[in-house]
Every structure is written in structure tokens, then in C-alpha cells.
User: Which sequence fits this backbone?
């Protein structure tokens, strides 16, 4: 079996993880987490989101975190921006990379961002235009790529349509979100068979939640198909406030261990990553759900 030589890990713990915790952490703790993740070698970290604080209060204070982060060329610190208001907030604090997020399911789109899929794409058009004008890179998410908590299994064709629309607008990469973690390797194979017919693997990333323990298996399939960007969250933090039953993301520690075993380069120091995961779990008074962490400590 062929595997890529290198994988880029997109660490989403500070955003996808913390957005779903019942305890809202202070700016100092969140900034410290991002600094510890950076020190572990993670070069791409999704730090927060500029969404409505009424919808997701846990992400309040993202501005302050961004202004405190080091301004180097070597690290990408990204933020979710659902609309122009969000983008303007991101620009104010010097963010260089943002992400827009659409869904392959109408009901999820309504519950998550209060509009239809078509309306969301309309909303993103000026976000992309302004970002690209200013040299800000934009990543695109498609949620519910294998199943939706309200509509059930997702037709891969719907994912393809949304992914193509986001790429056409100027997103440089599409992250395929198994938002509720229901997909199995058979589902990701089916999905990628459709997507890779029209989108190169270099434009795709996978974002697996681990609700049914399928995340690593699904990532392995994606790697075999030539995808080299994988989202994960330290300590398996995460979920989605608008996806009932969504458990944490794939734990970054577990991903790193698998990549080590496959001889795939990723640039992350596992002991330092584990220590960052323990730091945040202690602050949250929450168990660390990485299996690798428990095996090694
Ligand atoms: P809305 O209520 O339809 O928006 O929300 P609105 O334009 O009518 O505005 C309502 C109020 O929100 C107004 O304030 C606006 O100013 C304010 P008011 O007049 O009532 O005081 N507002 C904002 N404030 C701050 N920043 C903004 C902003 N926009 C409006 N950017 C909206 C629409 C999109 C804003 C809302 O639905 C929202 O914030 N949703 C975010 C939901 C979210 O963050 N979900 C989690 C992320 S997605 C995810 O986790 C999936 C992913 O991980 C992939 C996967 O797993 O599949 C990415
Ligand atoms: Mg997610």
C-alpha cells in the first residue's frame, strides 16, 4: 500500500475542541494552550472563531488570543469566519488565514449557521473576495459529509457540489467533516470515489470525529487515496454544539502515533503534545480521551 511521505496536521483543538466544552476558559489559558501546541511542533493551529458569541460563547475573546500570538512566518494560526462581520473581526487582529464552513445537509446548515446551503455560499462569496484581495488564505469546510444528525446518511454527490462551489470561490483546500463521526471506512471509500473523480487529492483534507471509534480507520483510507492533510484535536477534545451526539475529534496524539508507525513525517514531538493535552484537560477538569496518552503515561 502506498502512503504519503509527509502529512500536514491541522490542529483544531483550541477551536473545535473548546467550542463544545461546557466550561468557557479564559484568554490566558487558551493562549497558553496554543503556545504549548506550537512548541510541540504543530505548525497549523485553528485558534478560535469569529462567530456570534450568543451562539458559541466559548469562542468569545478570540481577538485577544490572536493579538498575543507570535507573528512568525513558520506558523499558521487560523480562525473560522461565518460572514463578513466575522472576517472583519479577524482582519482587525491580523489573522492571515480564515475558514468558511458550509454543510452537505440542509437541516444542519440551518441549525449551525441559520441559513440554507445556497444562502451560506452567497454569504461566503464576499468573504472570499475580500480575503483574497488582502492576501488572506481561505480554507473551506463541508460538514456532515457522511451523515447528518437530522437527515441521516449523506449522498456523496451533495458533498461534491458544495466542495466544488467552495473551491470555485477560491478556497485553497476543502476539509471533509464527519461532524458526528458516523462514517466507516466503507463510507469514506464511497465518498472519495466520487470526490476524487473531480477534485485532486491535494485539495482535500479529512476532519474525523471519533464518536464510533472510526476516525483513525477513516484517516488511513484517506491517506491511501493520496490525501495528505488531516485535522485532529489534542486530547480528543471536541464535538459540535449543533450536532447532537458528536463526540471529540480524532486525538492528535493517536494520529501522531499512527503516522510514526507508518513512517510518515509530520514534525510533531509526541511527549510535548501529550503534555499540552494534559494541561488543557486539567484546566477543563476533563478526561484525556487519547488512547496513546494513556498507553504512554
Ligand atoms: P444569525 O442570528 O442568523 O445572524 O446568526 P445575524 O446576522 O442575524 O446576526 C444576529 C446577531 O449576531 C447580531 O447581533 C449580529 O451583530 C451578531 P445583535 O444585533 O443581535 O446584537 N453577529 C455576530 N457577532 C459576532 N461575530 C459575528 C457575527 N455575525 C452576526 N461573526 C451566524 C448567523 C452565522 C452569525 C450564527 O449562526 C453563528 O455564529 N453560528 C456559528 C455556529 C458555530 O460556530 N458552529 C460551530 C462551528 S462549525 C463546526 O464545528 C463544524 C466543523 O468543525 C467541521 C465538522 O466537524 O464538520 C467546522
Ligand atoms: Mg468538527
Assistant:
Amino acid at each position: 500500500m502506498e502512503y504519503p511521505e509527509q502529512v500536514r496536521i491541522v490542529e483544531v483543538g483550541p477551536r473545535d475542541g473548546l467550542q463544545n466544552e461546557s466550561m468557557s476558559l479564559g484568554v490566558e489559558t487558551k493562549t497558553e494552550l496554543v503556545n504549548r501546541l506550537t512548541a510541540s511542533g504543530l505548525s497549523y493551529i485553528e485558534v478560535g472563531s469569529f462567530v456570534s458569541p450568543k451562539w458559541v460563547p466559548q469562542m468569545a475573546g478570540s481577538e485577544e488570543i490572536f493579538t498575543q500570538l507570535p507573528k512568525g512566518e513558520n506558523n499558521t494560526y487560523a480562525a473560522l469566519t461565518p460572514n463578513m462581520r466575522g472576517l472583519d473581526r479577524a482582519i482587525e487582529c491580523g489573522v492571515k488565514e480564515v475558514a468558511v464552513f458550509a454543510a452537505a445537509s440542509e437541516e444542519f446548515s440551518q441549525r449551525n449557521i441559520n441559513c440554507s446551503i445556497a444562502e451560506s455560499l452567497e454569504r461566503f462569496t464576499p468573504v472570499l473576495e475580500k480575503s483574497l484581495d488582502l492576501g488572506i488564505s481561505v480554507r473551506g469546510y463541508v460538514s456532515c459529509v457522511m451523515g447528518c444528525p437530522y437527515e441521516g446518511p449523506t449522498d456523496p454527490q451533495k458533498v461534491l457540489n458544495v466542495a466544488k462551489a467552495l473551491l470555485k470561490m477560491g478556497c485553497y483546500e476543502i476539509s471533509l467533516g464527519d461532524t458526528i463521526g458516523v462514517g466507516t471506512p466503507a463510507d469514506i471509500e464511497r465518498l472519495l470515489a466520487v470526490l476524487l473523480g473531480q477534485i485532486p487529492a491535494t485539495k482535500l483534507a479529512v476532519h474525523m470525529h471519533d464518536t464510533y471509534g472510526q476516525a483513525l480507520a477513516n484517516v488511513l483510507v484517506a491517506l491511501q487515496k493520496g490525501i495528505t492533510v488531516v485535522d485532529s484535536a489534542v486530547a480528543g477534545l471536541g464535538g459540535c454544539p449543533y450536532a447532537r451526539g458528536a463526540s471529540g475529534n480524532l486525538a492528535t496524539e493517536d494520529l501522531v502515533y499512527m503516522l510514526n508507525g507508518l513512517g510518515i513525517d509530520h514534525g510533531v514531538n509526541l511527549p510535548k503534545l501529550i503534555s499540552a493535552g494534559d494541561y488543557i484537560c486539567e484546566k477543563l477538569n476533563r478526561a484525556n480521551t487519547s488512547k496513546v496518552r494513556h498507553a504512554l503515561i
In short: The first helix runs from residue 13 to 17.
